[in-house]
Amino acid sequence: MRLGLSSFLFRTTAAIVVAALAVSACASPTAPGVSTAPSAAAGPVSGGTVTIPIGADPTLNPWSPNAFVESLFINRVIFDGLTKPGKDLAPAPDLAESWTIAPDGLSWTFKLRSGVKWSDGQPFTADDVAFTFNDVVLKPDLGAQNRASYAAVKSVTVVDPTTVRFDLSRKFAALPSFLAYNAGILPKHVLTADPLKTTTFNKGTPVSTGPFKVDKYTSGQSVSLVRNENYFGPKPYLDKLVFTVVADPNTQVAQALSGDLQIMILDNKAAVDRMKSTAGLSVVARPLVQYYWLSLNQTDSRFTDVRVRQAFVTANDRAAIIKSVELGYGSIANSPITPALAAYYDPSLASKYPYDPANATELLKAAGWTPGANGVLQKDGKPFQFTMDVGQRGVLEPVNALIQQDLKKVGVIVDLNTMEWNSYIQKDVVRREYTATVNWWTYPSDPDVFPYYHSSAAGKGFNIPGYQDPKLDDLLVQGQSTSDLEARKAVYKQLQQYTSEVLPYLFLWYPQEIDVLSTSLKGVPELGLRDAMHYAGEWWLAKK
């Protein structure tokens, strides 16, 4: 199979990530050890239901601006992309069976599988791919999720019913990798009129191509999936996948302990020991291509001074956050490239910003902020005080409280505004109506972070701070334009060093994912749960 010019690049990166996964699963130098999942003793059997918790109602359209977190879990099961993350994390065939890159690097051609049908029985063709990108993703007025990832794509051309060509404005070495990441293809025959806002699709029973399809969507309760009888591949072993809405991490823990959940990401790390000691549960730690960040909105003039951003980093005891909130499952972050991408990660930056409140005070003083009578910093007669929105999700609430405490010690007053998760996403991420916020990014197993940092992604893209910098833009384009491994390593080392200096985001920490699985659940690949969702058709339940 011809995977194109950059196949070696992707597989080299992915192999290193997989090696890191294996090492982490055995022993972590920064966190307590955890058990590994037992192997299956017998062959797969059909039947049964697997229940997975999600934090809020999902949006069942991978390109909707509202499709975050819980939406990603389900969308990866029901909507196939052209590619998917392989079990080595390199891009693997999905709706496309092969792909090649042009000699000049300015187009990619994808050969699609023949005979694929949508869940309603209609044929899947190249027209669906062209519609998804030309009429949805590349339409700036629609504000499609992940649109910034495809800034280099000019258009998608239908060559024939089973062939499409992505025409580029510049080289885009990581395109197959990005197409494996939240890039499901939409049905043209259903969504031509309103591709992103059709409620019966996004909050109902959408037409899809994956191994499972939606059977029932009950808002505030659950989304039930059943086998898609029109799926092009082997039929799933499971009868059902049920995604149940459980917003409280403690309730998720209780339900896992009682056997009501079969697989989950453990946000409440304090429950690890209970999970490990409970018969019938397996606990696995996995490194992630993920980092947590504090975003300071660059429309606020207080945060455009890099000395203020640097002061905020040194004022926060990030090691204490990792110890307190993550129980040691993580490491300090100073750039967007995570240790899981070992071929690119620059370990020299790990100690760049040690916890140093005195240095933070000096940086703030240099930026014109001096203590007032009550100890609160002020400038031009105005106190340094602002509101930080907090989404009710995972570790965000305790993390925000710790940041609030640390900033108060250097004279900065932070008021916390706790919000229901979907409301928070709408306000802070979609509409950008915020001053400061903490969240995280998870991205493909490639160091191309263009969608999160390029100036073109400010506004409706993933550049949440709205930070714009021509030098950073140039580094991002350089990295995206070459498929030579050594050249990319050099570019991304420069990018890490530069972002750690100018701090578009304030980098907090690189987490590890703790997955909890029922020991009766088999066939789950050794991937983070989000990537493992692509293989839900291979999961099965052993008979007790």
Polypeptide structure, described:
The two termini are about 40 Å apart. The relative contact order is 0.17. This protein has a domain at about 290-510: Dipeptide-binding Protein, domain 3 (Roll), CATH 3.10.105.10. The protein has 17 helices and 23 strands. It has helices at about 5-25, 70-80, 125-135, 175-180, 190, 200, 250-255, 270-275, 305-315, 320-325, 355-365, 395-410, 420-430, 450-455, 470-480, 485-500, 530; strands at about 50-55, 85, 90-95, 95-100, 105-110, 155-160, 165-170, 210-220, 220-225, 240-245, 265, 280-285, 290-295, 330, 370, 375-380, 380-385, 385-390, 415-420, 435-440, 505-520, 520, 540. The protein is about 30% helix and about 20% strand. Helix 9 packs antiparallel against helix 11 (about 355-365) and helix 15 packs antiparallel against helix 16.
